[in-house]
Amino acid sequence: AALEAAQAALGRRRQEQQDEEENHNHDHEGGGEPAALNGLAVSENVKSKNTDVKIPESELEAEDKGAEEKHPRESDTSKMLLSSDYPRDKHISIQRHLADLEKLADLREDERKPCPLCPEEKFKACYSHKLHRHLQNLHWKVSVEFEGYRMCICHLSCRPVKPNLGGDQTLSKMGAHYHCIICSATIVRRTDMIGHINRHVNKGETESRFTTVRAPKSSYKVVKESATDVQVLPNHSTPQKTDSYFNPKMKLNRQLIFCALAVLAGERKPIECLDAFGATGIMGLQWAKHLRSSVKVTINDCNENSVTMIKENCHLNKMKVKLNIKEEDNGETVGNGEENSDTIEVTKMDANVVMHLRSFDFIHLDPFGTSVNYLDSAFRNVRNLGIVSLTSTDISSLYAKAQHVALRHYGCNIVRTEYYKELAARAVIAAVTRAAARCNKGIEVLLAVALEHFVLVVVRVLRGPTPADDSAKKVRYLIHCQWCEERVFQKEGNMVEENPYQQLPCDCHGSMPGKTAVLLGPLWSGALFNTGFLRRMLLEAVQYGLDEAQPLLKTLVCEAECTTPKHFSTHNPGDENKQEECGVYIRTPNTSAESYLVHGKRKSEEVLRGAAKRQRAEHSAEHPPFYYNIHRHSIKGMNMPKLNKFLTYLSEAGYRVSRTHFDPMGVRTNAPLAQFKTVLMKYSTPTYVGAQAEGPVHLPGEIQLGEGVPAAAVVKVEEAELAEEDKSGVAAAMFTE
Q1: pTM for the full model?
Q2: Residue ranges under compositional bias (Basic and acidic residues) (predicted)?
């Protein structure tokens, strides 16, 4: 009530002042003349009319002073509406030095001057010494500093306040505010203003909020990777707060993609490749800088700041930027537009749009999060035998931490298992297969890597309905036992089985009550690697000196062949010449042209069919799906053998074994889980035998597993000896009695 009364009194006071001004102007004008805008207009009007009305000189001087005081107020409000390009146009509260702020007040000792940043109701006009203390202790002391400028606190009516019941805007404590030097926003609190400026710096915004431009050069730093320099923002590793995301931890991912592109560039030249999400442009710059004339690189991004940074990074690496039609119309001159080995095309479009408009041989998708929203566009125009690579960073959903998100994005039901990384890779490939099949295209998986931060999938595109049908048939459901974690892919066919638990090798359903297995998927059930392609990637990594990718590629080759590292050889001429992928022959440097096609002869087709059959037979032994963690299945109270020795023991038992990059303690094998545990138990030692060396645990009757005796016979021998021991114990007890 008191506030309303004060507001009403203030409104009445303003109304009385307006009435007095109107009466005063009416007395000076005399008659029905229009009201004068200022004292100068009144004096001119009087002189031109030559009337008998005499106005004292003191009143004219007072009116002139009032006009001079009123004019700066109007200019202050007009300056507030200007763009805040701070070196040129800025608000009067933004100054470099205190002397610049005092110049606005025009301090004179013999005259009273008002404060340029306070209204008359708050601070009345005073002499210079008092006004100097006011500017220094209030406005300058609580200012916010940014790049040599000070954003002083402002008490003018720049910031709109809520109107009262009478419709008037009243001045209150909320009228004090700061003007942002970057976006002209009005912020009330000083701490909020500091955070507001920091957000602008992190995003690289240095002008108006509607037309953001690059930050000054001093706020950028240059990062070098694989002989490529790129400029990055201070917070380049935080994707939510920056437009140009650069993650140094993804260096291995970039090297793997480069090796895949280098292999494709060796098959046919030149190839058109697309980096759909450029950010800083580091990946596309590495392609163009090392592969030169073999590739035509296009870097795309939908953010204007990122596109500007990509162009500057191109010039930083002495690359020319190809002008497109839109840039030429706007008058931009980024390069001479010549198409040569050092030219990169930079586009500013949505990724789906650029992939719909043009066709490419190589497409890489690396969005922030899932990439399923761009799969349909990627497979729409990709050329035959081209490659599509995608990096998925939504590991929370793929690694079964957010199962509902995985169901929403990938249409896949997954749970947390010991092989969750391979489960994630197969879920992504299943989504890729369905997207390719909708475009009448099939895929062949060349590479699937799932590490801590990302899931990388590289596939080759095979056009035609037949490859599409073959790929779609490999998308199946997985039966997973929740007790022993045994797993098996569901058999092909549409018929419903009475007891699907019979497909599992374990007998947990018979010994445990209730339902013991879950149905996961649909998942990709085919191979995850192509051995020939991986070997060529390894050669490219050695050629270009990619040290971080070489150990991983060696592990992938061993995993694809399901062999131990001791049997791995870098130079295998037989495998280098065998480059048949899904029945499609790929030209390699070591293969002559005559071995591919003999023109004009029907016999050539028979030769190709025979070679395809032989190579399919050689490649038919795919690596077994999934792996077992040796720690997960260790026996309590037993010391298990070293991993490499265990691989040797399992291989001697007649099974295919290899290590896997998905899990450092994982073993990829075609042995059932029961046999896996049996071999592990056989070569484990008791924990209480400290001095005993590693070796086999001798089974009863000196019968060793793997010598032609089945495990069931060993169990029967154990039961017979235990029964004899029980009988001897009973006889001894009777003799004692």
Answers
A1: 0.64
A2: 13-31, 46-77
